[in-house]
Amino acid sequence: MEKTSSPLLLFHHHLLLFLVLLLPISSWAAIDSTTNYQTFIKCLSNHSTPQHQISSIVYTSSNPSYPTVLQSYIRNRRFNTSSTPKPLLIITPLLHSHVQAAVLCSKLTKIQLKIRSGGHDFDGISYTSSAAAPFIVLDMFNLRSINLDTTTNTAWVESGATLGELYFKIASTSKTHGFPAGVCPTVGIGGHIGGGGYGNMLRKYGLSIDNVVDCLIVDVNGRVLDRKAMGEDLFWAVTGGGAASFAVVLSYKIRLVPVPETVTVFRVEKTLDQNATELVHRWQFVADKIDNGLFMRVLIQPISSRTQKGVKTIRATFISMFLGNSKQLMTVMNRDFPELGLQKLDCMEMSWIQSVLYWANFDPKTSPNVLLDRTYAADFQKRKSDYVQTPISKTGLESIWKKMIELGKTGFVFNPYGGRMSEIPAAATPFPHRAGNIFKIQYSVSWEDEGVEAYKNYMSQIRELHSFMTPFVSKSPREAFLCYRDLDIGITHNGKDSYNEGKVYGLMYFKGNFDRLVRVKTMVDPQNLFRNEQSIPPFPAKSRIYRRK
Ligand SMILES: Cc1cc2nc3c(=O)[nH]c(=O)nc-3n(C[C@H](O)[C@H](O)[C@H](O)COP(=O)(O)OP(=O)(O)OC[C@H]3O[C@@H](n4cnc5c(N)ncnc54)[C@H](O)[C@@H]3O)c2cc1C
Ligand SMILES: *[C@@H]1O[C@H](CO)[C@@H](O)[C@H](O)[C@H]1NC(C)=O
Ligand SMILES: *[C@@H]1O[C@H](CO)[C@@H](O)[C@H](O)[C@H]1NC(C)=O
Ligand SMILES: *[C@@H]1O[C@H](CO)[C@@H](O)[C@H](O)[C@H]1NC(C)=O
After folding, report:
1. Which of 113, 159, 338, 402 has the fewest CB atoms found within 10 Å of its own CB?
2. Which CATH class is domain 263-345+380-472?
3. Residue 48 and residue 492: Cα distance in Å, rounded?
4. Whose C-alpha lies nearest to ligand 4, atom 12?
5. Which ligand sits closest to the CA of 270?
6. Are strands 135-139 and 89-91 parallel, antiparallel or unpaired?
7. Which ligand sits closest to the CA of 72?
């Protein structure tokens, strides 16, 4: 019995050998990531100065402040759960040298760096990760200085500043200047300008990136570079191409734009029984061609009818910003959109900063100080986007309304283009959606219910509406707006060196500009240090060799 090894024993023997072989491999992996982590910490402390210990701005998960620091800039409850992947460390730089150190240490240890400014990314990619690998959040909120130069009407704005802080600062210096950027005051400069950025002056002045003249970045080698030092290709890429694929942006230098002392806003609501369909149909022929000083957005929502019990209807809310007084506005509206029946009574004249408050849903008489408040009442949110290049017919609109009522909660925001947007060439910045676009659609669903069923319902209804809209929107590629981050687009790869996957969302966000973005990426960051779920991939190494031949 002892002499012969039974097949069973042999099997056991092999299994044991197999286990012996397997065990060290997995523990090596664990040791490897701990070593990396320790190397990262050591690397950071190597960059400390006697005056400033870098360890004071590093939060490990065992630090009692870690949850508060992490949650402070989570703006979407979908990513505020116990199962949301969390960073190994959060670094909150106070100095530009801290950002340089974080980049160099990420390069040394290959631990992924996520960059967060205002945290408003709609799919949370600035502070979560879809990869199993550990990651670090570089949280820019302390770097928020704004330096206005009234002689040149420009300003250096650090990435961690919010739009509200910028608007406040401009208005406290001048009554006749503004900046064309988004309407939500807590949005961060870093992600907003890095992704394009637009607001209610886009028909007059274009996007935020159309009014950027310089910037300061930390590149992949830890160098601080301005526009001149980084060169025009990289400057082009970090103003609209999703800066996080290329560098950490420390600050942008923006050009302020003139605004009149009096601007006018209005808000008019129409339900289906008040000709909403006819008005929205007509709006498509007017809104992108009317006076450039007028931005007339339409919010479209399924609601319960006020007149008929138990009946659902669609409400179209025309909410507008006009760079002029109400008399001038009435002339424009009576001439070009009399169907809306706008009355002088509907118009509210105010200063530009009051219009900022109005658009942010504050009473325009509120003190502008509220724009400095960084708190944000977050709910669960999902957003998507589309572009419309051919007006949708009345029967088309009716079929869409029917679908929206059936789905229940998902709404639209129609944002008119035209004006300055059509004059700027599609390749001037990475943002390609210029001439030929009548309007952009934002799909929007927000909810409070924490249940899994609610989550599934709302996520699936917004996706179903997006799919239903296919015949009415841009095709090949179906275009999308980078600032309305949507991880449903393309395959989420979290920065694997995957050119083909990157090309799917890349063409939707950037169309013909995708190629140049890839070339810039390959030139400045071939190792793909700056990567995320939807970053610009470098050319695959093989094709790089091929290309050089
Ligand atoms: C309530 C709300 C309202 C909005 N309104 C508008 C609007 O009116 N107009 C509009 O255009 N958009 C709007 N957006 C979208 C917004 O512009 C984008 O989500 C933008 O990316 C947010 O920037 P952030 O710095 O707050 O976000 P973050 O989540 O911090 O960052 C977004 C992306 O940018 C990267 N990034 C951030 N900082 C840097 C940096 N310093 N260097 C390099 N990369 C960086 C991040 O890594 C991430 O990929 C809105 C979003 C929300 C939630
Ligand atoms: C830290 O600095 C020391 C001394 O210069 C050096 O030997 C070491 O390699 C550095 N470690 C890291 C992780 O950067
Ligand atoms: C996240 O959850 C914490 C409690 O766990 C809460 O205090 C905080 O307000 C939440 N933030 C968001 C954006 O949901
Ligand atoms: C709807 O439009 C028609 C003409 O297109 C008009 O006769 C009617 O008065 C309008 N109804 C309302 C409620 O505005």
Report:
1. 338
2. alpha beta
3. 36
4. 274
5. 4
6. parallel
7. 3
Catalytic residue flag (residue 484) = yes
401-453 pLDDT, tens digit per residue, is 999 999 999 999 999 999 999 999 999 999 999 999 999 999 999 999 999 99
Architecture per CATH, domain 7-139, reads as 2-Layer Sandwich (3.30)
Say if ligand 4 is within 6 A of residue 36 CB. Answer: no
Residue 116's SS3 state is: strand
Q: How many whole angstroms separate alpha carbon 437 and alpha carbon 423?
A: 12
How far is the C-alpha of 384 from the C-alpha of 404, rounded, in Å? 15
Instruction: Give the integer Cα–Cα distance in Å for 378 and 330.
Output: 37
Each residue of 152-188: b (16+ CB within 10 Å) or e? ebbbbbbbbbbbbbbbbbbbeebeebbbbbbbbbbbb
Mutation to probe ligand 4, out of 268, 275, 280 (largest number of atoms < 8 A from CB): 275
Q: Which of 167, 376, 484, 505 is catalytic?
A: 484
Total-model pTM: 0.93
At residue 549, the pLDDT reads 34
Query: What's the CA-to-centroid distance between 447 and ligand 3, angstroms?
Result: 15
Measured between alpha carbons, how far is 459 from 250 in angstroms, rounded to an integer? 35
Instruction: Kindly state the DSSP code that residue 290 receives in the 8-state scheme.
Output: S
From start to end of 141-236, where are the E strands? 146-149, 154-158, 177-178, 212-218, 224-225
Taking 70 as the threshold, does the pLDDT of residue 545 lie above it?
no
The better pLDDT of the pair 197, 37 is held by 197
Q: Does ligand 3 lie within 6 Å of residue 77's CB atom?
A: yes
C-alpha span between 249 and 27 (Å, rounded): 37
User: Which residues of the chain are in CATH 3.30.43.10 domains?
Assistant: 7-139
The string of DSSP codes covering 477-535 is: S----TTS--TTSS---TT-S-HHHHHHHHHHHHGGGHHHHHHHHHHH-TT--S--TTP
Atom number of ligand 3 nearest to Cα 376: 13
Kindly state the tokens that stand for 443. Answer: 């799909």
* CATH 3.40.462.20 location in the chain: 263-345+380-472
- Topology of the domain comprising 146-258: 3.30.465
Radius of gyration (C-alpha) of the chain in whole angstroms: 26
